[in-house]
Amino acid sequence: MRATNRLSAKGAAALGPGKYPDGAGLWLVKQESVRGKWVLRVTIHGRRREMGLGPFPAVSLSEARRKADEARATVRNGLDPIRERDRARREAARNLHLLKDIATDCFESRKAELKGDGKAGRWFSPLEIHVLSKLGGMPVADIEQTDIRDCLAPIWHNKAVTASKALNRLALCMKHAAALGLTVDLQACDKARALLGKPRHKAQNIPALPWKDVPGFYASLTDGTVTHLALRLLILTGVRSAPLRFLHLGQINGDMWTVPAEAMKGRRDATQAFRVPLVPEALQVIEAAKAHARDGFLFPSVRKGVISDATMARMMERRGMEARPHGFRSSLRDWLAEATDAPHEVAETMLGHVTGGAVVKAYRRTDFLEQRRVLLERWAGYVTGQSGLVVKMVRG
């Protein structure tokens, strides 16, 4: 019989990267000195398989041995321990019955589809705040349209966008529950929507400064503070405030700023990083911002982290302006439409928008970098008062 229990808890912790047998098919595989995983090698119906027993050191040596003994016992009974474990997990999932449990399980299943694995909380928050706080403790099978109506009625008209998101995500949770084998009313959310009626609230666009007024505002940003410099770069590049606020020196290479894909709204594919050409005026702003940089971030807040969007907005509020930082994207887009003959695809790409259907996107291999650079140079010249308005694009 092969020797077993070769490892000790203290010895396992001291081992470096490598593969170490404990005996009878149990191995400790360490990728690093401080962490690794437990693997059990078993032969099932003449086929050799490896079964993961959990991470090391979260799963201790004694726990790994206990799991290995259980798996070996399953093999002796002529069953596949991997399949049996998966079946047990499915059974446990079917036993989920409270809405809060279903919602959490649904969120975990959808994380890969969400920007940044949903860490910002924007997917889960509307559901958590406005639905789970009232219905989370109810069995999902008992939830009816009247429950949903009563839950969302207080915000249906005055917070229509948030309420609609909460209802849509609740509908996904109901479908998730049905997929787990639970009996639920898949029409409950649609029925609740009918009971709630059409929201009276109308979505409003974020106020934007007219493009003809941008040069005057840009010229007033002269004190060299983090807020003024951030607003200047926001105007010059046309990016959203989030990637700008989290701009790190490591993202800049010469006259190019590469915004990571996870920082781009609506882009989850790791290959979809967005390149922003940095014109001379933008490079001057970045150089000035380096004096404020902390931990590589160009626009740090006073205490910790980075500057908030609210900080820039409050500065504009104090000046009595209705416009908000995000509105400068509209200012740039209107300038492109009214003062240039930039093609639609180029203008939309400048804002990081993805245009065209699936076929068009599949075949398009360009991000119009050089065309965008020319336009951003003209835009910088316009906002700094150095050039005229009309831009003619050369069509290739």
UniProtKB/TrEMBL annotation:
List membrane-spanning regions: none
Q: What Gene Ontology terms describe what this protein does at the molecular function level? A: DNA binding
Pfam families from the UniProt entry: Arm-DNA-bind_3, Phage_int_M, Phage_integrase
SUPFAM superfamilies from the entry? DNA breaking-rejoining enzymes
Q: Does the keyword DNA-binding apply?
A: yes
Q: Which PANTHER family match?
A: PROPHAGE INTEGRASE, PROPHAGE INTEGRASE INTS-RELATED
Instruction: State the UniProt keywords alphabetically.
Output: DNA integration, DNA recombination, DNA-binding
Tell me one GO biological process term.
Answer: DNA integration
Q: What name does this protein carry? A: Site-specific integrase
Family statement: Belongs to the 'phage' integrase family.
The chain positions of domain Tyr recombinase read 204-376
